[in-house]
Known about the structure:
The chain is an alpha/beta fold and about 325 residues long. It contains ten helices and twelve strands. The strands form two sheets. Strands 8-7-6-9-10-11-12 form a seven-stranded parallel β-sheet. It has a five-stranded parallel β-sheet with strand order 2-1-3-4-5, with helices on both faces. α1 packs across α10 and α4 packs across α6. The two termini are about 30 Å apart.
Amino acid sequence: MPAPILIYAEEAHEIAARLTPRFSEERFLPITAPDGLAAALSENPEIAFTIKSETLAPPGHAEIAAHASLRWIQVGGSGYEHLGDWPRARLSVTNCLGLLAPFLAESCLGAMLALNHNLIRYRDQQRARHWQGHGFRPLAGQTLLIVGAGAIGGELARRAAALGMRVIAIRRSDTPVEGAAETLPPEALQGALAEADIVSVHLRLTAETEGLFDAQMFARMKSGALFLNTARGGHVVEADLAAALASGRLRGAYLDVFAREPLPPDSPLWDEERLLISPHHSDAALDWVERFTDFFADNLARWRAGETLVNRAG
């Protein structure tokens, strides 16, 4: 019998139940809390399917990656920085990049509409029983700057273009992005900021992108622009964003990710009237667990057949 497969996720039992009918010869170790991890690793699993969450924080995932028996980790979601500097000679890492990209793009569009069409303001007025109309500039004709036009940014570009927006895409590859009027390299970012009515960030967090959006970058943006970040909280200097909102330099912002998560109750961001906040759930389609599990199942079949894994990271 092959080595057991570790499932480290709050939904581990649900995932194992979905996998078992397809892989009856496999033994799954569903672990839903950190205190069960050591016992599971003592059984020397070769494969792990992990999903980071508030309960299952990065240290446990890094411990899995460092365990000598592991040969492959499938990560739920697209990010894998929480694994640390894993031993690439021994360990393959795959992610779920692109699976939920269409739904995150929908959330970005929803945020654009909510901010641009004064829907947040109207919600506040509703609570105050205050009747007052506000004009808005249609999204059609506005310029959207997508910073990081990968799977998610590409989905957003197509949808925004269909709404009549002019899209500028920033990406390392010079391959044109469908729906984008221009595809520019990262070094063109600062110049492109001045053209954008809306800036949406979809970068992977690296040493180069940590704190990328600071006071200087917000100052380069067009006055009255909107700012969206659904990638990683580390991209943004939150105090500088709050200052840009308070000064009116930015007309509004949407954040789904933060430097500290959950966002502490005493964070001043909660009080920013121009800011729309969601709890790192911008891609949380109701069936996301099934989608991640089915992707892992397909990759597991490839692994057992000696075939190339899909979405190999790093």
